[in-house]
Amino acid sequence: MKKFFAVFAMFGILSFGLTQTVVAQEEAAAQTETVDSAAVDSAATEEAPAEVAAPVEEETVGMHKALKTKFIEGDASFMSLVAIALVLGLAFCIERIIYLSLAEVNTKKLMAAIEAALAKGDVEGAKDICRNTRGPVASICYQGLLRIDEGLDVVERSVVSYGGVQSAALEKNCSWVTLFIAMAPSLGFLGTVIGMVMAFDDIQKAGDISPTVVAGGMKVALITTIFGIIVALVLQIFYNFILSKIESLTTDMEDSSITLLDLIMKYNLKK
Fold first, then answer.
1. What is the dihedral of CA 206, 210, 213, 216, to 10 degrees?
2. Of the residues 85, 128, 132, 240, which has the maximum number of CB atoms within 10 A of its CB?
3. Contact 218, 150 (CB under 8 A)
């Protein structure tokens, strides 16, 4: 009986020891898995900001900086010509915009003042109103009032002739803008051709058609073309704006001329 209890006690001690060993091994494995998962999570957490930070660095590069970089990477001789075309074209555009803006007046107010003066029989007062008002509309009205005593036909011919002179003055220097619009892409295409020639020269010197050999010349070729097209688009926008202002002023000149002839006819009927 004592042997039985001794054997049972030894069996229980061995079972308890094995159980503790298994539990300890499971706890160690669990801790190892926990450490590994924590390490993976921390690594993923560290990689995530890096992946998020990369686009942020790309987004911080501004458009003007990118254009400046590409402009510098292009060939200096042709990129400088394209830049000169842009500067000169913008100079003519700004000059025309300022001139046309100063030429715009309130034609309805001007014609109402002339009508009031002619209704009183004050031709000199109407001339003074036109003389003291800027713009082509006032100039045309002044030329018509100068010949008010020579008949309506003479006034009409004078208004039409002087209207043509004023229209030509409005369109002055617009031909230079169209020249630079056509010149900018042409300079870009010229840079493209020369860049391709440079690429073929590099291929001939290296004796190998590899991307690194061809990339330099082709890059210059494409950059000059891109900037030439950009310059042409910018100048074309300004040119269309100038044309719209010229059309508006021409319409005001025509309407005011018709109104002036009607006022002179009424004035002659009252005499």
1. 160
2. 85
3. no
Contact 224, 75 (CB under 8 A): yes
- Can you give the pTM of this predicted structure? 0.68
List, for residues 164-202, the tens digit of each pLDDT value: 999 999 999 899 999 999 998 888 888 777 777 777 777
SS3 127: helix
Q: Which two tokens stand for residue 184?
A: 């900018």
15: tokens are 């079972």
CA distance from start to end of the chain: 157
Is 103 buried (19+), middle (13-18) or exposed (0-12) by CB count in 10 A? buried
pLDDT for the residue numbered 213: 62
On the CB side of 214, CA atoms within 13 Å amount to 7
Please report the sign of the dihedral spanned by the C-alpha atoms of residue 180, residue 182, residue 185, residue 189.
Answer: negative
